[in-house]
């Protein structure tokens, strides 16, 4: 089994396992929404180890879960527990004390996958783990890993009021892969096609693995998004349902944002509800991010956007027409939503350009103290990519998801918008353009201009 990426996570888990083997019990918590690869990573990590891997199931009683856990012990550890493991356990405290006893002399890895399901999504399971860890775990060679896709519940367990607060030696949240790291899943796609694949699939390993390099972008979208039961069509509700109660109005808020509402007042107006609590929870769970204008002179109010590219695609392009797609009209829906798809693509490309600008700073192409973001003033002017050294603009950039090469006319437009920024120092800023179609010779040869294509964005340092 090969794990793509996740070197940091594997290194942390491996170091914890080595400590556990030496007699320092280790508690690790790994969480993140569904499909980010938690189970794949931990299954790989458990290979070759004396291990118990147990996945909790939805809507099962504690009685049934405990009986299943006892069965997993007997099945996975075999003869060594045949005469020791009971048919079931009366409580989770008893079950955890039992596995702690199994680790007195030999190292033991115990993974409880989807731990919040063990008590119906409440945090009291964390109190049970904490009590066992405090009172019954001393020098056992035990490593216990708890995982969960219910991000809010897991973070509540780890928070100041949670049972696992400052208990775990490893706390690792796993998010979808950023674009540059996700490239490893589809190295043979052209840069332009890969950015489109990422815009639809996000950084989810399973989604990217299902994208076929032998098919065109349109054929892949037909297969994965516009066919009844397609992976991209059905996966978003499953991901969200693990963490969000739709009665809280979360879907309305996300739908409003996908439709173009970015300011708090407009989101509330489109969602037709109070959004303070809803927006705050979406932010804490990583579904939404707040963005502020970089530097001075811009708008004071933040903008809000869906932080997950796949979920943004689903809400923007698929959600409203899911019933039509399930009814077999996917080909027509793909055509009628092409404008929304292009708008979504442009936003993903713009975010990729800002990430690329940060890598330019790290590579020494810009001053090392340059910070990168975006800038806007009311609704009159917006700068896609802004690099500041102190308060001075050193990079002013524009992103265009268009096949036609950019020209000096585009430079003039960008310079007019840059005039709204606070004035630069003695040095003039560099003007940068990221475009699918590149730039014509006159613009590319301009001494104050740098131009980049999707290939440049995806190039490794």
UniProtKB/TrEMBL annotation:
Residues 314-403 form the DUF234 domain. Residues 6-209 form the ATPase domain. InterPro entries: ATPase_dom (IPR011579), DUF234 (IPR004256), P-loop_NTPase (IPR027417). GO terms for molecular function: ATP binding. It comes from the Bacteria. This is ATP-binding protein. It comes from Micromonospora olivasterospora.
């Amino acid at each position: 089994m090969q794990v793509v990426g996740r070197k940091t996570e594997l290194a942390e888990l491996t170091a914890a396992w080595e400590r556990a083997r030496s007699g320092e019990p280790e508690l690790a918590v790994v969480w993140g929404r569904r499909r980010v690869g938690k189970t794949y990573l931990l299954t790989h990590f458990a290979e070759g180890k004396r291990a118990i891997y147990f996945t909790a199931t939805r809507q099962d009683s504690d009685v049934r879960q405990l009986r299943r856990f006892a069965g997993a012990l007997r099945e996975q550890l075999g003869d060594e527990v045949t005469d020791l493991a009971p048919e079931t356990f009366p409580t989770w405290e008893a079950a955890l004390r039992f596995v702690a006893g199994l680790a007195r002399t030999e190292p033991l890895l115990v993974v409880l996958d989807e731990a919040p399901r063990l008590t119906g999504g409440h945090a009291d399971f964390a109190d049970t783990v904490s009590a066992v860890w405090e009172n019954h775990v001393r020098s056992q060679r035990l490593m216990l890993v708890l995982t969960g896709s219910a991000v809010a519940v897991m973070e509540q367990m780890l928070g100041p009021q949670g049972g696992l607060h400052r208990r775990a030696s490893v706390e690792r949240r796993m998010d979808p892969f950023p674009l540059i790291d996700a490239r490893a899943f589809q190295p043979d796609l052209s840069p332009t096609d890969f950015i489109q694949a990422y815009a639809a699939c996000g950084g989810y390993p399973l989604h990217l693995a299902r994208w076929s390099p032998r098919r065109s972008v349109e054929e892949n979208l037909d297969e994965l998004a516009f066919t009844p039961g397609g992976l991209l069509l059905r996966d978003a509700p499953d991901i969200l349902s693990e963490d969000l109660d739709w009665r809280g109005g979360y879907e309305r808020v996300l739908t409003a944002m996908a439709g173009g509402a970015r300011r708090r007042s407009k989101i509330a107006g489109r969602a037709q509800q109070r959004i303070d609590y809803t927006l705050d929870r979406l932010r804490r769970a990583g579904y939404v991010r707040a963005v502020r204008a970089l530097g001075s002179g811009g708008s004071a109010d933040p903008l809000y956007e869906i932080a997950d590219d796949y979920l943004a695609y689903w809400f923007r392009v698929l959600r409203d027409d899911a019933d039509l797609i399930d009814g077999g009209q996917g080909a027509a829906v793909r055509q009628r939503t092409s404008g929304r798809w292009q708008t979504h693509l442009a936003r993903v490309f713009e975010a990729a350009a800002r990430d690329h600008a940060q890598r330019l700073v790290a590579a020494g192409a810009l001053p090392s103290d340059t910070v990168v973001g975006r800038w806007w003033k009311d609704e009159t002017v917006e700068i896609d990519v802004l690099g500041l050294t102190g308060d001075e603009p050193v990079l002013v950039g524009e992103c265009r998801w268009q096949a036609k090469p950019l020209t000096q006319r585009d430079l003039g437009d960008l310079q007019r918008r840059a005039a709204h920024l606070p004035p630069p120092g003695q040095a003039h800023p560099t003007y940068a353009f990221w475009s699918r179609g590149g730039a014509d010779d006159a613009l590319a040869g301009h001494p104050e201009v740098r131009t980049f294509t999707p290939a440049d964005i995806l190039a490794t340092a």
